[in-house]
Design goal:
The complex is a heterodimer of chains A (281) and B (317). With 281 residues, chain A is an alpha/beta fold. Chain A contains ten helices and seven strands. With 317 residues, chain B is an alpha/beta fold. The chains are: A alpha/beta (281), B alpha/beta (317).
């Protein structure tokens, strides 16, 4: 089991990967990716029980579905750095003929990806189906999913949230990235959603809050708590409070870096704030 | 001339229900989902025999398509059931991203397609679904003509690995294809031999095409009727072979002429063998309330329309 320092080193390297990937092609979504770096590292390094090879059905292991597919940089970086494909392939992000499409897809056969996402609001339904398939198969492993907070404005989520508790899908841990921001600004300005916690609870979910979503130990602790709540007849929601752009000072406290790449100077500053740990791709 | 008769009429949706029930007995991976229309989709028998493999989703079609996609991860073969309108137009992006682009083995089974849904009117009568579905890369599109063929197609698509759109309807229509037939996806069936005009029909219009061929025969016109149950992939060879002989063609479908079977046939002919073609289809319009027979007459989708179009196209040879 890796220690905290090793996980933090991996997180720092993932931040470098994210910056370098979006900088190279001058496109992509660094803000939300950086905010979720600790979550992805915790999930793939510690939390999930994963087989040592990838197959689409994923029977006998935990599964993860990314619903807010635009944070593909963090997903690709962590998948590569936890052994799904070569880190060299991160060089091909968003290039023509690449398996690392702008938004994740199964279409190109990239190991680790089980569903296309990008058009928002669809991932929870997919995760529910996969969770119910696990029950049919007598597979006691869990299904994890990640959703943006702005993404909850898509109505399909609420169909899924209603269904999950009604059908007692208690082998699902759906995490919402509460960074409070979306493309047009603060979620509270674009479309205030009130208490997301109260909404999930009203829909019959168990809610676990991780207030320091960019603290690896807090994430590990919160996710372990969430895991302990599975199998009790209710779906589990994790509300993960994160900072968009975390780890790069000028990308924090703003929504400006939702879908914008750093220029050469900005890249240099960002990389200087995150010294190489495991080696760049 | 080979003629077809029938002793019984039955709805094609009941053929789906019977096929699904049989799959429930023979294929443990088949699961079914429904968005609050069990009775309309005739899914009762499957549910009775396999309650643990049935998912009542409620009135939430978008969620149903996503759950179906997820169920394939773990090896299940999900069959979704709702009306054609709610199976396609309402959930197009869910099908596009989570099923078609993700190449998931989901069978989208759609009842009450077209005008013959009848009295409920245009909100429920989709005439655009074949176009919507055939435009999705990798999607197989099937529109069956009677109870027996719908049952056979339902069973066959479980063996096909990939997304399928299976379209059928509400009213009782003549059963004229064999019981326990083997259904081959993408293989057209020649029903009558003829030399003067080819009639390529799909779904409920296949029987109307056979009726039309009898009338044409009495007028001394020999029609070759082809049942093209699979619109994608299209059996191009069957069409080209037939028009090589007849030199003209009528396509017939319960769908808008924009985006339907007729346009698929026209593309093949334009590229490989330009041939005069007439379309029996709706003319870029919504439907309305009425009995199925009244609607088929008003919108020009019955055997009389096929006869008329056949006579028109013959003059263009």
């Amino acid at each position: 089991m890796p220690n905290t320092q090793q996980l933090e080193d991996l997180t720092t390297q993932v931040r470098r990967d994210i910056l370098r990937m979006v900088h190279k092609v001058n496109s992509g979504h660094p803000g939300g990716s950086l905010g979720c770096a600790e979550f992805f590292v915790a999930l793939y390094s510690e939390i999930m029980d994963r087989k040592d090879h990838f197959d689409m059905d994923g029977i006998g292991e935990d599964l993860f579905f990314l619903s807010n597919g635009h944070i593909s940089p963090v997903y690709y970086s962590v998948l590569a750095r936890t052994g799904y494909f070569s880190v060299d392939e991160l060089n091909t992000f968003r290039l023509i003929n690449s398996r690392l499409q702008g938004h994740p897809t199964t279409h190109e056969g990239l190991e680790g990806i089980r569903i296309a996402s990008g058009s928002l609001g669809q991932g929870m339904s997919v995760a529910l189906g996969a969770a119910q398939a696990k029950k049919l198969n007598g597979d006691n492993h869990l299904v994890y999913s990640l959703h943006g907070d702005g993404e909850l404005q898509e109505g399909q989520n609420w169909e899924a949230i209603m269904y999950a508790s009604a059908k007692k899908v208690d082998n699902l841990i759906a995490t919402v990235d509460l960074n409070g921001k979306q493309i047009d600004g603060a979620t509270d300005d674009v479309l205030p959603m009130g208490s997301i916690k109260a909404k999930f609870e009203a829909f019959g979910w168990t809610v676990i809050e991780i207030e320091e979503g960019n603290n690896i130990e807090a994430v590990l602790k919160g996710m372990a708590e969430a895991k302990a709540e599975t199998g009790k007849g209710k779906p589990v929601c994790v509300l993960l409070t994160t900072m968009m752009g975390n780890g790069i000072d000028f990308m924090m406290h703003t929504h400006a870096w939702h879908g914008k790449a750093p220029n050469d100077d900005q890249l240099a500053i960002g990389l200087a704030q995150n010294p190489e740990t495991l080696g760049d791709y | 001339m080979k003629t077809y008769t029938y002793t019984e009429k039955k709805d094609t949706r009941s053929g789906f229900g019977a096929g699904l029930a049989e799959l429930g007995r023979t294929n443990p991976n088949v699961v079914a989902l429904c968005a609050d229309l069990i009775g309309s989709l005739k899914m009762d028998q499957f549910i009775k025999e396999n309650p643990e493999r049935f998912f009542q989703i409620g009135i939430a079609e978008a969620n149903m398509m996503g759950i179906a996609a997820g169920l394939t991860i773990g090896g299940k073969i999900p069959f979704t059931g709702t009306f054609a309108n709610f199976s396609t137009g309402r959930v197009y992006d869910q099908i596009r991203q989570s099923i078609a682009y993700s190449d998931k083995n989901v069978k989208i089974c759609a009842s009450h397609a077209g005008l013959t849904l009848g009295e409920d009117g245009a909100t429920h009568q989709i005439l655009e679904d074949i176009g919507l579905m055939k435009m999705l890369p990798g999607m197989t599109v099937i529109n069956t003509c009677d109870y027996n063929q719908t049952k056979a197609a339902t069973i066959a698509i479980a063996e096909h690995n990939g997304p399928v759109y299976l379209r059928f309807g509400r009213p009782a229509v003549p059963i004229f294809t064999p019981e326990n037939q083997k259904f081959e996806i993408g293989k057209a069936i020649k029903l009558t031999e003829g030399n003067d005009v080819t009639i390529v029909a799909t779904g409920h219009l296949v029987w109307e095409a056979l009726e039309a061929s009898k009338v044409l025969h009495e007028k001394g016109i020999s029609a070759e009727v082809i049942n093209i149950h699979t619109i994608k992939p299209l059996d191009e060879k069957a069409i080209l072979d037939s028009v090589s002989k007849t030199g003209c063609i009528v396509t017939a479908e319960e769908h808008n002429f924009l985006g339907g079977l007729g346009e698929s046939v026209a593309r093949v002919l334009a590229q490989q063998k330009p041939t005069p073609q007439e379309f029996v289809a709706t003319n870029d319009t919504f439907g309305e309330s009425g009995t199925p027979a009244q609607l088929m007459e008003k919108y020009g989708l019955n055997s009389a329309s096929i006869v008329e179009k056949a006579q028109t196209v013959l003059k263009r040879k």
